[in-house]
Amino acid sequence: MAGRVRQIILPALAAALVAGLVLVPLGAVVIRAGGFSALRGTDLSALWFTLWQAALSAALSCLLAVPVARALNRRRFAGRSVLISLMGAPFILPTIVAVMGLIAVFGRRGAVNAGFAALGLPNVTIYGAHGVILAHVFFNLPLATRMILHGWQAIPAERFRLAASLGFGPGTVQRHLEKPMLRAVLPGAFLAIFLVCLTSFAVALTLGGGPRATTVELAIYQAFRFDFDLGRAASLALVQVGICLAALALAARLTAPPAFGAGLDRAPMRFGGGRALALQDLLAIAGAALFLLGPISAIVLRGLPALPDLAPGIWAACGTSLGLAATSTLLTLALALPLALAAPRHPWAEGAAMLPMVASSLVLGTGLFLMARPFVNPTSLALPVTLLANAALSLPFVVRLLIPEVRVLQADYDRLAASLNLRGLARLRLLTLPRLARPLGFGAGLAAAFSMGDLGVITLFSDGETKTLPLALFQLMGAYRMDQAAAAACLLTTLTFALFWACDRIGHHADPR
Amino acid sequence: MRKTLMLAGLLAATSAVADEKPVLTVYAPDYFTSEWGPGPAIEKGFEAICACDLKFVAGDVLPRILLEGERTEADAVIGLNTDVTARARATGLFAPHNEDTSILTLPIAWTDDTFLPFNWGETAFVYDKTKLANPPQSFQDLLDAPDSLKIAIQDPRSSISGLALLLWVKGVYGDKASEAWAKLAPKVLTVTPGWSESYGLFTDGEVDMVLSYTTSPAYHLIAENDDTKVAAIFPEGHYFMTEVAAQLRTTDQPELTQKFMDFILSDAFQGMIATANWSYPAVIKPGFLPEQFAALPRPAKTIFFDEAQAEALRQPALDEWLAAFGK
Amino acid sequence: MLTLDKLHIQQGDFTLRADFTVPHGALCAVIGPSGAGKSTLLAAVAGFLPPAGGRILWQGQDITHAAPGARPLSILFQDQNLFPHLSVTQNLGLGLNPKLRLSTSDHAKIAAALTRVGLADLGARKPAELSGGQQSRVALARALLRARPLLLLDEPFAALGPALKSDMLALVAEIAAEQGTTVLMVSHDPADARTLCSQTILVAEGTAHPPQDTAALLDHPPAALAAYLGA
Q1: Do A475 and B31 touch (CB under 8 A)?
Q2: What whole-number percentage of chain B has pLDDT above 90?
Q3: C146-193 pLDDT tens trace
């Protein structure tokens, strides 16, 4: 019994920290506001828009990701792993940069419309609700693809071998191997993306074409900054938390654990298949690569010419951002691992890990400020608060990535490890870390990239002196220096991706398989 | 969203140098303290005369003051816009600036004894004259232009220039503002959270015109030697925007703070605003504006709602705006 | 001496009761119809299934609530007996030291155990590079190294061919005799039970019966067993 209790101390601490970070500031705002205020009609339409666009974005991302992940799983070609890494890039790009790239490709003066015009076709516009959804699919297709691809890779090669030996055609393989895996992976992927899109702010504003595309997050912003109505902001924030919890509960009911059993880490088989399948896979991969890499190439190409003109201050900002990213990544992993390991047995661990997704950063920042203010000068807390907030914001993704693999790990090896008395740090070192190296590397890459791209979670804590790369980018834009801003965007994109790629590679490298 | 991320710890060591001198804490918006903003020049100029350490705290100025109340550490604030002065005044935290506002050279009369303007400009739609051959000659022209003319504007709920546009339309069209918005809405390619994103869309050629300022072409003329960017000047008038500074009643070093308020209207401060902030200084004296800046076309009429009027118009104007785009 | 004292196992609707003692050093078969609870019984003894009632004792000492790894036993599962990402040597080393800090003498012991099961020189391989029979031998070698007085076999050799399986069972018997190990061995093959195990526990109809003489039981099976044996 004592062992049981000891096992949940760490996850319970992590969960308490995260839940406290999300909920206590909300409470502080409510107390300061003297209670909740009623919502307005426009808030309700914002809620409706938020819900349907998030659901549609998540559904489309997942739907499109299935053929791409399947093709990537069963095809082997030169540059495959680089392509997989590269295709993850949109998800980790700072919003503002990604929107620049999308406009360069799909905008009025973008490549797509130039092509359409050459063919005598009418213009298409990216601005409107469909633009918001296009952008959300652009952001989240990589996440869905990676989650599903992980699922595929988690099916032991032995099962595919068995399928081949039984003469299964693609349809039968789909029914017996792929469908159960998708049943297990898709609800989680859908939920993660749904929640990302729920709190969308800048995308919806820039590509939404107007106030019809108002999200709850923007409504919170308005309540804070335009109306100075803390009570309404708190009500809206509570609505967001409510949606998150409802979505989590729903996904928990829909998630079916996969039951493939363990394999012996044999190398995956080459997949033959017919010419039609090969063509289908080629189209899926090429289409996704073009869709995901086009805008990114546009950002990089647009920024390259002005790179030499960048002020030296930019390099200091790069250093600050990198240091921040490294530290908050470590913090993320330290929070994510205990929570993910506890999640299969204790649903509260997963719930706590998901909470930060709906934390409105404005509410978070204001609440923390109100709490810190009576005791210390908030400016002196800038570093810990920033790190903690960054770590919390990437936590849901890392935990989501880990949970399916933790389930497999525990189903396959818990009894053996227990019978050998493999516990504590030894278990972490010899079993947990090696078997989870891949998702850990990927998760670390995400956390690092999110931190790199973060404009700063908490403006109320700022001291006005330290500058990160995204902030420098914004300041350049705000000072008319659009070419230099493009160069900073190019730099930010490249650095963010390099950091992500390095973590992902380390994960692969550390995977003993 | 403009959010700042600042690491006190990392730079604490470097700022410990001036610990002998008194520290003047001034809250300012994010853009202010960047190396491309006016902050560094102001800091240098004031520290040369004050024997003090001027410390800018960048971020959300008013929300921070509102949350801190009496216990704020700010001695002064700079960079507030007129849209929030009513709320700032209502806190009772601000003291009179004690400056002579008669020396101001604003296009409107300014008698506020609490909030002191240090720069100004007017909203305008900016276009590229090599790409837009027949720009609208008036606001009405803009409304009547074909819907294929695409403009980018800012969201009034998140952007001060977006709010200024609401008031501009209200000022030109009054009770007919709804109809004006109905005509303008189809030309709005998109609404961005802040000015920067809109302006980026414009410089990338994505929109024909962008909601910006009459002074925007000055940057391109002076810094880039580019005369293609032009502000369309409308006879109906343009909306006046100014940024103000104020001192806190709660400051524990009122003399130093007053000295900072004095400095704001000094030649040293006013003389560098034009190219540091790309706007007109509140006091224009000969030599304060570079030649090309001075040569910019000026609207014949300036529209401005004072604090009370603007506060009263804000919500109805926003509702009209939302309704126009809701269709 | 393993004592199951009024042991009561409950899994949903499924109930299994056991109340008997297995003598020290016995080689004891566990047979019974499919789904009767043979593996469940072993899982409970090994500590993977907390009993609803009763006690498990080893040499008179209550181990009912001991952690699986702290029990005086080794267990070989039907599959998943090895960690695929660790080498054979590392898999064996876990039997000596779960932290895998292995001394020179530990390495010597591992080499000796490998030789004992006929796998000398294969220590550097990963499990996937071994045949099924070789994998079983590695698992058995680890049990040999752990030298626990009780060995539970939950059909670890079921996937092997008949000749290989006989070899492995013979090896188990040999090692058990050498170390004085008590063995509980789930079996589907009455012939295995007859050749190796003097005693047999019959698991049927919710009860694990006390060990009885294998030959007598198989020659005169009760109705439940008879149906299963097809006799």
Answers
A1: yes
A2: 65
A3: 889 999 999 888 888 888 888 888 889 998 998 899 999 998 888 888
Residue among C47, C85, C94 minimizing CB distance to A513: C85
Arithmetic mean of pLDDT, B19-31? 85
Tell me whether B141 touches chain A (CB under 8 Å).
no
Q: Which domains does chain B have, with CATH numbers?
A: 8-120+241-294 (3.40.190.10), 122-240+298-326 (3.40.190.10)
Judge whether A90 lies within some domain: yes
Cβ neighbours of residue C196 closer than 8 Å, sequence gap 6 or more: C27, C29, C169, C170, C172, C173, C185
| Model pLDDT, residue A459 | 61
User: C201, C104, C117, C102: which is closest to C164 by C-alpha?
Assistant: C117
Q: What is the mean pLDDT of chain A?
A: 83
Indicate the pairing of strand C199-204 with strand C27-31: parallel
Give residue A81's domain range.
Answer: 8-510
The answer to whether residue A1 sits within a structural domain is no
CB pair distance less than 8 Å for C74 and A419 = yes
Which amino acid belongs to residue A396?
Answer: P
A49 located within any domain: yes
Fold entry, domain C2-72+148-229: Rossmann fold (3.40.50)
Total count of domains within chain A:
1
Closest among B34, B54, B17, B194 to A317, alpha carbons compared: B34
Non-local CB neighbours of A376 within 8 Å, separated by 6+ positions: none
Q: Which tokens belong to B56?
A: 């800018």
* Interface residue C12 vs chain A (CB under 8 A): no
Which chain A residues touch C80 with a CB distance below 8 Å? 261-262, 412-413, 415-416
Distance (Å, rounded) from C-alpha C51 to C-alpha C37? 13
- ipTM above 0.90 for this complex: no
Chain A residues with beta carbon closer than 8 angstroms to that of B36: 475-476, 478-479, 481
Q: What pairs with residue C17 in β-bridges?
A: C8, C207
Query: Do C and B count as touching (3 or more CB pairs closer than 8 A)?
Result: no
Within a domain: residue A2?
no
- Which one-letter amino acid corresponds to residue A236? L
Residues of chain A contacting B69 with CB distance shorter than 8 Å = none
User: How far is the C-alpha of B52 from the C-alpha of B19, rounded, in Å?
Assistant: 10
Chain B CA closest to residue A42: B322
Q: Whole-model pTM?
A: 0.82
- Residues of A in Cβ contact (< 8 Å) with C83: 413, 416, 430-431
- Alpha-carbon distance values, A508 to A376, A425, A512, B232 (Å): 43, 22, 8, 57
Would the CB atoms of A379 and B60 count as touching at under 8 Å?
Answer: no
H/E run at residue A330: helix A313-342
CB contact under 8 A, A475 and B150: no
Q: Which residue has the tokens 């008194």?
A: B22
Over residues B204-233, the mean pLDDT reads 94
CA distance linking residue B233 with residue B129, whole number of Å: 13
Give tens-digit pLDDT for A325-382: 999 999 999 999 999 999 888 888 888 888 887 777 778 888 888 888 777 777 777 7
- Report the CATH number that the domain containing residue A395 is assigned in CATH: 1.10.3720.10
